[in-house]
Design a protein that fits this description.
With 360 residues, this protein is an all-alpha fold. Helices cover 71% and strands 1% of the residues. It contains eleven helices and two strands; from the N terminus they run H-H-E-E-H-H-H-H-H-H-H-H-H.
């Protein structure tokens, strides 16, 4: 009898423990769901905004503004067919689907109400409320990205002209500068990155977002490799491969992870900041110990680049519906990119003249 009571007591304790564990599981599940709600953007959690979007998707109208592509048949197909079957190719990029237009104009109306009530702007679906221009989602960022693309193209072309038409060449018609090919690759990756940046900020969809982020990661990874090779004066091809291989493997794995497993914004931000800060430190240390005649340009780029990175960390609502921290970061990189290519040309000339003297 004593044994049975003891067994019953043990069974009761196990049962209570199991119930307590289940309670904790339910509690933490509810807690994390609550945290998820807190992490959602304040704008798209607003009941007034959400009701406006739902009503718009049913009626195709926000206040007195209606959208033709929000008219659906009983089967759920747009009455007038897909917009891309009706508009010329050059106008397709300016068009938006029903949900996007409903979200945009509901956001505009809601922000007007908030402004009249003396409230600050809030984010909607992770983005600040920007005003469209010619169908572009973030026109300031698009314009600054395009200007950065132009600066990169000008820098790359001027670098090419300097090496092959103004500086002496070897008998094999190859350049004396040991980093020519590396800077050519840098120019192409930079132009690619700014091109997709302009596309992404003009239309934020899943594909353009992944292309933009992947291009940035590839560029940052490559520039870190380039910073290591140049600051440590690595000229031997086998040594370059040994240094570059693990970094290329890491960057490639990270890009594949973002695109095909999980698009983790927080992880990607940490990876980009680490790679960006690492190369800024390398260039800063090298500028402090080298006797390079253009080291002052390096200092300006390093300090300016470090300050510009603060704009990526410090976030604030867009002024006049266009200029936010991210767009101003794009603007700040325009003069820095111009000065950076000026340093690259100076470095090519400095190294070429030094090698020509030694060859004589």
């Amino acid at each position: 009898m004593r044994f049975w009571c003891s067994g019953f007591s043990s069974f009761r304790d196990i049962f209570l423990i199991m119930m307590a564990d289940r309670f904790r599981i339910v509690f933490f599940a509810a807690f994390y769901c609550f945290i998820g709600v807190l992490n959602a953007s304040a704008g798209d959690s607003d009941p007034v905004y959400r009701a406006c979007v739902v009503q718009c998707e049913k009626t195709g109208c926000v206040a007195d503004k209606c959208f033709q592509h929000c008219r659906f048949s009983s089967s759920g197909v747009p009455v007038d067919g897909s917009w891309y079957m009706q508009e010329p190719l050059y106008r397709q990029w300016k068009q938006w689907d029903c949900q996007s237009d409903c979200r945009y104009y509901c956001m505009v109306n809601r922000e007007k109400e908030r402004e009249m009530a003396g409230q600050r702007p809030v984010k909607y679906h992770g983005k600040w409320p920007f005003n469209r221009i010619f169908g572009l989602q973030e026109p300031a960022s698009v314009a600054f990205s395009a200007l950065n693309l132009a600066v990169q193209f000008h820098g790359w072309v001027s670098f090419f002209i300097l090496l092959y038409y103004k500086l002496p060449l070897r008998h094999s018609k190859k350049t004396y500068y040991e980093y020519t090919g590396l800077w050519h690759i840098y120019g192409l990756l930079s132009m690619n990155s700014w091109f997709w940046s302009a596309v992404f900020h003009s239309r934020d969809v899943d594909l353009t977002e992944k292309l933009d982020y992947s291009s940035v990661v590839a560029l940052l990874g490559y520039t870190l490799i380039l910073a290591i090779l140049r600051t440590f004066s690595v000229r031997d091809e086998s040594s370059r491969v040994m240094i570059a291989a693990p970094l290329i493997a890491f960057v490639t794995t990270h890009i594949l992870y973002l695109n095909f497993y999980k698009f983790d914004y927080g992880l990607n931000m940490k990876v980009c900041i680490v790679m960006g800060v690492a190369q800024l430190l390398l260039w800063a240390i090298w500028a402090g110990i080298t006797r390079h005649p253009s080291r002052w340009k390096l200092w300006v780029v390093v300090v300016g680049g470090g300050l510009a990175m603060l704009l990526e960390i410090y976030d604030f609502p867009p002024y006049w519906g266009h200029l936010d921290a991210h767009s101003l970061w794009h603007a700040s990189t325009i003069p820095l990119s111009y000065l950076w290519w000026s340093f690259i040309r100076d470095d090519a000339e400095y190294r070429t003249m030094d090698l020509v003297k030694k060859a004589k």
